[in-house]
Amino acid sequence: MALKPRFVDIHVVQPVPYANLNRDDTNSVKTMLYGDALRTRISSQSWKRAIREHFQKALGDSALRTRRIGERVAEVLRDRGWDEALAGRAGAHVAAGSSIKWEVAKGKDKQPITNKVLTNALIYLPEDAVEELADIAEAHKDALTTDFTGKGKTKPESALKGKIDKILLKRNGIINLFGRMLAEVDQAGVDGAVQVAHAFTTHTTEVELDYFAAVDDVTETKGDETGSGHMGTAEFSTGTLYRFATVDLQELTKNLSEDNDIAVDAARELATQFLLSFIESLPQAKKNSTAPHSLPHLVHVAVRSDRPLSFAAAFEEPVRSAQHGGFVARSVEGIDAYAKAANTLLGPSRVLHAAHASLNFDKLEHLGERHASFEALVTATVDVALAEAPQ
After folding, report:
1. What phi-psi label fits residue 291: left (phi over 0), alpha (psi between -120 and 50 degrees) or beta?
2. CA angle at residue 209 from 205 to 215, to 5 degrees?
3. What is the bridge-based pairing of β-strands 102-106 and 194-196?
4. Of 39-43, 101-105, 258-262, 277-281, which range is least confident?
5. If we measure between CA atoms, which residue out of 287, 255, 363 comes closest to residue 16?
6. What average pLDDT does range 289-301 have in this prediction?
7. Whose CA is closest to 50, among 244, 331, 278, 283?
8. Which carries the bigger pLDDT value, residue 300 or residue 153?
9. Integer Cα distance of 276 and 102 in angstroms
10. What pLDDT does 2 receive?
11. From what superkingdom does this record's organism come (predicted)?
């Protein structure tokens, strides 16, 4: 018996001080217009990367996403004692030996670089699968000694295609959780079991331009010149963010295994760590000059049997600051009020569980039981979500 539809929604209210967590191509703060009000925005791609990095460190379950898989294979072969030149050749042949289209890399002079191959698509595979690709190179060492230029009739990598494609099908916990897009290799695609929304401020924000200068220490000591060693400007913003994500446990267990017992146990670990990583992670842009390491003031989780439900609409009308300043308290009130209204409208039976953890809010009537810690909150929620799983 398959797991019934189960969605674990997580809602976060988090104030962030002077920062630029996620820049655009001009190094500007990312923004959006919502409710006819300008908001600071952090892209889901940026925060998902932070989540993945936190997740991988916590579980020690790493995945590699790259177009330069040949170079990684070559590194492994060199570590195994291969000659540097031969390892480079073999890595290039392996990179060109799958069903994924490729191109020979070019240098700054736009000329092709021998034995350096880039796949056209990013390959996403478990980190330990690189060792298996190196094993294939070891097994076909005599056939991979020619330079790879992308030209000529000799293509020893063609004999490797099926073997390499088989390794590119491999997945681990993080790939089963986040999914994988790899259309060129049959059955390599994985539907993601998590969805992450762009974070945005619950209130209107403004972008601030910071002027800075760097002192030249020698000039300062000598005093023989005036002016700074370097000057520049950078954009920053502040605000209280609303963040949302959801975990589709039915999809996750399907990705993990056809054996329900194994899938449920693995799903418990992965979902728990994803939720904790979502809570604790933070994009790292400009961290050295802003140190914006804040903590969520509220985390609300709900287990739903019907569909995910974002509370973003609670902030379509931007929150106004409290009498003495601050947006956190009113943002939390907005979450509480919207939860009541939305769950009443949809019907309370669809919410199988609701709970929250917060710093200092004691009168939240519609967010379920309060837990003392984020870990206790997440553990209890995942246990409820998987309580009816087949055993």
Report:
1. left
2. 145
3. unpaired
4. 258-262
5. 287
6. 94
7. 283
8. 300
9. 38
10. 66
11. Bacteria
CA dist., res. 226 & res. 247, Å (int): 58
Query: Residue 75 CB: number of other CB atoms within 10 A?
Result: 15
Tally Cβ neighbours within 10 Å of residue 165. 18
The CA-atom distances, in angstroms, between 7 and each of 3, 251, 277, 281 are 11, 10, 17, 21
Closest by Cα among 99, 117, 65, 95 to 184: 99
**Secondary structure of residue 9 in the 3-state scheme:** strand
> Could you tell me if 129 and 163 are in contact, meaning their C-beta atoms sit under 8 angstroms apart?
no
Do strands 369-370 and 351-358 pair parallel, antiparallel, or not at all (unpaired)? Answer: parallel
- Residue 289 has a pLDDT of 85
Query: Token pair of 201, please?
Result: 């401020």
CA 169 to mean position of chain CA atoms: 21
The model carries a pTM of 0.91
Confidence (pLDDT) at 243: 98
CA distances from 258 to 138, 254, 262, 270 (A): 33, 7, 8, 17
At residue 259, the pLDDT reads: 62
- Fill in the amino acid letter for 342: A
Q: Which tokens in the block code for residue 302?
A: 């709900």
State how far the Cα of 149 lies from the Cα of 152, in Å rounded to an integer.
Answer: 8
Element housing 112 (H / E): strand 112-119
Torsion region of 36: left, alpha or beta (phi above 0 gives left; psi -120 to 50 gives alpha): left
Say which residues have a Cβ less than 8 Å from residue 223's Cβ, sequence separation at least 6: none
